[in-house]
């Protein structure tokens, strides 16, 4: 009996025809629309999920003020620096303020003069005390003399500041065409500074903590400005910034020098008088009769007596 063999398969099968994907029929323009629509949906989900930006973090004002002082490395651990530190600490403790004492050598200045360290130290203090309301930078060659004067009242109090502000006043006297805003209100002010006979003075400065202050200090500390060969380093850099950046000028108040920055000698600006909040040893030297240590000693007994009598 013969059995039939099954038919052999064709040795030349028909070519494989893959299924066509539906995406093949979507035009490029349609695909772009779908992607954009998907991104919009994701954005809406993120927006309503509670992750949306809620504005700057509120500042509680604890402590109300941080007093910042930076010492050149040569004054580190000297009797002079301890004298100045004692002054800052006693004043801060009286009012519940914070203190931030730093050394210029703590910061990388890329070859710029050590005086630039005041700018980054103020920024550093804001990071260390994020809830402080104000930062008061006062130079290493200065003493706080009036323990009863509070920064938030004596300097930044609305009524007091309105009375002191020099409006429509040249930034660099006597003939600068750039002047302080004539319509500025105390509530608008985030930076308080003084002038001496040469222009803006940065030995005593008050800054209101917040997003604007961070922007301002970051701008001031920009490497470009530090690399310029300004005659008075950060001080002339600040004069440049203020005159070219309305965003900064619009928050600036210049007040009479004795409000926060009276000098120990009349040769360089307004001279200190009893009752002023601080005295700055303008142009004091490292050694000799006009040394900073000798200048501080002139006022040592007075400030210690004032602080003791105020307890």
TrEMBL record:
Protein's UniProt name: Glycosyltransferase family 34 protein
Keyword Transferase carried by entry: yes
One example of a Gene Ontology biological process annotation: protein N-linked glycosylation
Coiled-coil positions: none
Entry's Gene Ontology molecular function annotations: alpha-1,6-mannosyltransferase activity
Transmembrane segments: 29-48
Domain of life of the native organism: Eukaryota
GO CC annotations, alphabetized: mannan polymerase complex
Record-linked Gene3D superfamilies: Spore Coat Polysaccharide Biosynthesis Protein SpsA, Chain A (3.90.550.10)
Family membership noted in the UniProt record: Belongs to the glycosyltransferase 34 family.
PANTHER family referenced in this protein's UniProt entry, alphabetically: ALPHA-1,6-MANNOSYLTRANSFERASE MNN11-RELATED
Keywords of this entry: Glycosyltransferase, Membrane, Transferase, Transmembrane, Transmembrane helix
